[in-house]
């Protein structure tokens, strides 16, 4: 709370907070940031659960000054203010660096699979999605043919079939629009890989609990005090493809920190599990 209120530059939120032209008074950005970060730290990532905690959790009530924002206000703040929120994490790392909490000698890299809000049934290569579309169109056509051959069907059956046909047509149209507006993904060897219509950035991947549609969440932390310096969700199947771009992002993050320490040339070590191992990465 002290860092949010006294250390961070929150001027990027001024236009949102000091808006007297429309609507009710906005919640102070310091309050919104504190309850959201507190919620995330306690595993509450849903805006509804954070809003509920502000009503009945004494810790959240204390941090928010007993302000109880609606869950839509919390969700809107996260969705609309992401460009203002992202630089705050670099500011926090700058504070950690000033306190000597970042050693820059060894970095540990690890990842986990994160499930996305998308069905894996809507995944496939462009060829597979094209065949799925054709299958849906054939099923829709069979409904019309059945009506034509069985003219005496009751109204109840006709209505049910028409609803099913409408559903099939919408699904086929959804695939058609996706194929027309997206480029096919390719793997490291140039072969086509599966894309997801609902969440094109995600990937179909296997976990210890089965197959999911989701992301590889990769984090890099400094060994001195386990401060996380870089974190990103990648929509690629293997961790091998995420290592080099993650290290590149880490370098960009370190360049934003104390330049005097960055200028101190020394060997930097990385540690990662075998999932990141590949000939390209070893080079």
TrEMBL record:
It comes from the Bacteria. Residues 184-205 are annotated as: Disordered. Residues 195-205 have a biased composition (Polar residues). This is Transposase. It comes from Pseudoalteromonas porphyrae. Residues 6-78 form the Transposase InsH N-terminal domain. PANTHER family: TRANSPOSASE (PTHR33408).
């Amino acid at each position: 709370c002290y860092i949010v209120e006294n250390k961070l530059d929150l001027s990027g939120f001024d236009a949102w907070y000091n808006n007297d032209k429309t609507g009710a008074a906005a919640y102070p950005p310091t309050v919104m940031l504190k309850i959201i970060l507190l919620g995330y730290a306690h595993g509450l990532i849903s805006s509804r659960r954070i809003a509920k905690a502000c009503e009945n959790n004494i810790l959240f009530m204390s941090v928010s000054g007993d302000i109880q924002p609606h869950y839509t206000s919390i969700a809107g703040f996260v969705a609309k203010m992401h460009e203002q929120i992202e630089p705050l994490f670099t500011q926090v790392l700058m504070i950690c660096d000033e306190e000597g909490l970042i050693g820059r000698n060894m970095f540990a890299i690890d990842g986990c699979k994160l499930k996305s809000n998308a069905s894996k049934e809507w995944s496939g290569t462009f060829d597979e999605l094209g065949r799925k579309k054709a299958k849906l169109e054939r099923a829709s056509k069979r409904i019309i043919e059945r009506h034509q051959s069985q003219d005496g069907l009751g109204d109840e059956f006709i209505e049910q079939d028409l609803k099913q046909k409408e559903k099939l047509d919408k699904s086929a149209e959804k695939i058609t629009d996706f194929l027309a507006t997206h480029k096919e993904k390719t793997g490291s060897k140039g072969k086509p890989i599966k894309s997801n219509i609902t969440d094109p950035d995600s990937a179909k991947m296997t976990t210890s609990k089965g197959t999911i549609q989701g992301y590889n969440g990769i984090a890099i932390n400094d060994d001195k005090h386990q401060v996380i310096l870089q974190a990103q969700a990648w929509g690629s199947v293997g961790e091998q493809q995420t290592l080099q771009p993650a290290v590149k992002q880490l370098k960009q993050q370190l360049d934003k920190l104390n330049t005097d320490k960055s200028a101190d040339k020394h060997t930097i070590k990385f540690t990662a599990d075998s999932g990141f191992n590949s000939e390209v990465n070893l080079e």
